[in-house]
Q: What sequence folds into this?
């Protein structure tokens, strides 16, 4: 079985195959009938232990456009609230014949645990695990950047991407750093020192504490939400202080090169990391990212379940 657990599992060729396949899938979305028969008879389970709007709906739309049967499982309202374990939940899904399990979990490592277990014989796709990774978000972000900045069929070599905000709690940041560097982009992280993870100096990117110093050198600026729900002891400045130093407003957007785009994975905290003026401007790709997410996830499901070699992801033995 093949899985997609980490952006680190993807070689440059793997990533480009997914992005090129996503371009094919995007053409399906432009047709009057947005459906392919490719995964007819296959079952995709959305197994969500944590809240989601975009990712869950996007995977559901992607699977349905490929004609798969979709089962949506939300931990809220399920027997998880009675104490049922991940193992017993997985055994239940296996008994129902799941071919792919798209899992979001509050614990970093849960998708890897599922993929390396003998509880289930399905492909596992990580839809966000704790503060660890969100590989399909990074893929849809790369897809969006490639379309806007480099052109279809090309990589992101030499493109400069600035990721701003709560890096410490961001699985989106980690997956983006891994994938974008694989694709040849140069990433700079900008955050207050207290919102950077220990060991960030070993990541394949640069770090800055000064947003204004990097804007003019950015092809894309990715603003991240401050994840207060994951904060325990982490020091956090006041909202006004944070917005003043790390928020993107109209004045800062004007300092970007003319071709540069503003990205946000959502959900946004308008007025905090991004002003409404910037969020609603044509330079902001947040809504485009959501649309691109469906094509990208169609590509991932297609390649895992129905596509041909070369494979994406890894075998059970070496998923990271
Ligand atoms: N970007 C993202 O993962 O959004 P959701 O939490 O709404 O799925």
A:
């Amino acid at each position: 079985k093949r899985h997609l657990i980490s952006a680190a599992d993807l070689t440059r060729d793997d990533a480009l195959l997914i992005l090129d396949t996503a371009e094919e899938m995007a053409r399906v979305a432009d047709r009057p009938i947005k459906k392919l028969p490719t995964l007819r008879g296959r079952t995709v389970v959305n197994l969500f232990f944590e809240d989601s709007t975009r990712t869950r709906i996007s995977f559901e739309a992607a699977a349905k456009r490929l004609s798969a049967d979709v089962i949506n499982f939300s931990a809220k309202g399920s027997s998880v609230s009675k104490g049922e374990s991940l193992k017993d939940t997985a055994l239940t899904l296996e008994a129902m014949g799941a071919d792919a399990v798209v899992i979001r979990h509050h614990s970093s490592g849960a998708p890897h645990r599922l993929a390396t277990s003998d509880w289930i014989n399905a492909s596992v796709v990580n839809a966000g695990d704790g503060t660890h990774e969100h590989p399909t978000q990074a893929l849809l972000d790369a897809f969006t950047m490639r379309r806007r900045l480099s052109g279809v069929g090309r990589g992101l070599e030499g493109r400069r991407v600035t990721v701003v905000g709560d890096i410490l709690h961001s699985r989106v940041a980690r997956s983006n750093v891994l994938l974008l560097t694989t694709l040849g982009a140069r990433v700079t992280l900008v955050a207050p020192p207290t919102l950077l993870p220990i060991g960030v100096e070993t990541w394949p990117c640069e770090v800055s504490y000064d947003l204004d110093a990097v804007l003019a050198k950015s092809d894309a600026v990715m603003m991240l939400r401050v994840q207060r729900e994951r904060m325990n002891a982490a020091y956090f400045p006041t909202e006004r202080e944070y917005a003043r130093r790390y928020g993107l407003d109209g004045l800062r957007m004007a300092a970007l090169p003319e071709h540069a785009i503003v990205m946000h994975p959502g959900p946004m905290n308008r007025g905090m990391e991004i002003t409404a003026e910037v969020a609603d401007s044509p330079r902001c790709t947040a809504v485009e990212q959501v649309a691109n997410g469906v094509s990208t996830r169609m590509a991932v499901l297609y390649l895992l379940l129905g596509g041909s070699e070369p494979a994406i992801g890894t075998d059970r033995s070496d998923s990271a």
